[in-house]
Description:
The chain is an alpha+beta fold.
Amino acid sequence: MTAELVRGQNHPLPRTRLEIRVSAGAAVVAGATLGDERGRVADARCVAHPGAPALPGVEVSRRAAAEHRLAVDLEAVGEAVHRVSVLLALPPGAPGPSRFAGLAAPFVAVTGLDGTEIARYTITGLGAESAVVALELYRRQGAWKIRAVGQGYAGGLADLLSDQGLPEAGQVTGAIWEAIAPGSTRSVAAPPPHTGDDALVRAVSAGAPGGPGLDAAPDAAPPPAEPTTVPQQQQHHQQQQRAVAGGPVSYAHPRRRTATEPPTAPVAPPLDPQGPDRPVAGDAGGWSMDERLYNQVWGMFEDLARTVAAYRSAVNFADARREQELDRVLSDARARMGPAGEQARERAHAKREELVARAGEVLERDLAQLIAESEVVEPALPPAYARWDSPVWHAYRVPMEIPMALRLGDVRLPERPLLRIPMLVRLPLERGLWIDAGRTGSEAAACLDAEQIKGLAVDTAVAVAARLLAVYPAHEFAVHVIDPAGAAAARLAPLTRAGVLAAPPAAGAAGVAEVLAGLTERVDLVQMAVRGGAGTDALPPGMDTAEQLLIVNDFPHGFDDRALNQLRYLADEGPSVGVHLLMVADREEASAYGPVLRPLWRSLLRLTPVPDDHLADPWVGHAWTYEPPLAPSGSRIVEQVLGRVGEARAAWPR
């Protein structure tokens, strides 16, 4: 589980080979210092920076950027090193803010080399500082820990290095600025400063998540239009709203590489698909092409979330400003009547339309760039990330390695419904899935009856199971199905005909009990082996060590109290030892169990078989419309892929 750190908090590090990911609202320099037990830095050879990016055990970026990835191997730093401090600094004279108060709170995450997140920290409370010690990795009694620091320095990087005892702090600082000078033109320009007097828009500081995330808790309603708590990430948008009133505005995403915009241009020119800024698939950081594409897709998600949030905030600001001006007119009885009052009202409405139009132009520009990027990225996605209608599936071969993520559908926003962003989830699954077979509030569901929705829910479950089977090696993933009444036999046919199920779908109360007992026993045995430090050799002979997926249809039919408790146990304890749950259920039909099932629903990621705007994004407050990963009507690609998986499983030596 990821640790959400606050200033001063520490957390143990379970591994020594790490990646530190930095995200800021503008181009920053990232570096690291190697200190002794007191944190003192002996000389310039103990500072990793763009001019000297590689030290024993530490490697940093060579340029200023809004995103960084630092590689750390704590076993290679040397016995004299007891503290590795991660530094962030704003380059002097570069486009953008000169103090951290002018950008969104920087975010730092510590992950393993496989991408597993260990800890994250959002550096809040910065003001006039231009350099900050973000966090430190320190050695204590032979073990390494991480501490969230967040210590800022108004005097800049030189003061920071001097405070760590570096004798030549000034010379090292000069060398850093000199090293990044050739690349300074690639930095993303900051939004223009606020010049007007705006009391309507205030930046509200709050603990923000480190990045966009989707939460499909069934009890969560779509977020309100005017949230009372604004994440730190949204301060960037609020600063841009202020600029709308006083001058030109740029909605450039500070975490993505874009062309530098002239500070006086209200709207950047449209993207030239053949120009130097044309999108490129895989144009993101990562150790492999799959990871680069994964990061690029998430960058597109963030771009869309941020630019739409900026547009909506600008519209809200324009509405609030108009209401404020109208209130001033109406508050004066002498002015609200006659030609003067009418002219004042017309000016207020005209100003509102002007502000909304300018924000709309910026939105269209950003959406055009995202559409161009999507048109390049989508055809380049590997099978694990691709839609069912992608040509890559026609050349599909069963893989030998597990990918880092899987596509579970698409998400979109109403501002541009045709722009769909792949919804990627990391593998192995960290939580179970629930495909809601009940009637939702979407327009698509309103046109269907209850049986049609249940049928689509099973089709979605089959499509998800097929994707999981397709991206795992033939011997490393097994699927079980519980269908107590046999109601889904016809729709489960693609799985049964291909021979990819571990056993025929279980029917009746006896079948439910048998499958649940077997998987519960597997979870217990693997947990005991893990706690005892033993490997898979300690498991009973013949036990399948592959990842397991249990599809449960028509819940709660066929479930008694014992089976219900076993199901909840699998949902809670199964993912950590490779047993995953995929529920196809209507929550209303299980309401007879009362509140006992609430923890089960909340532990699962809720998906819908028809498009529905139920995925809540706590980062900027959007309600994303989710679209399930169904194959095109009339396509047989799912059956073809499952057939190849079945052939590979049959040919695998046992």
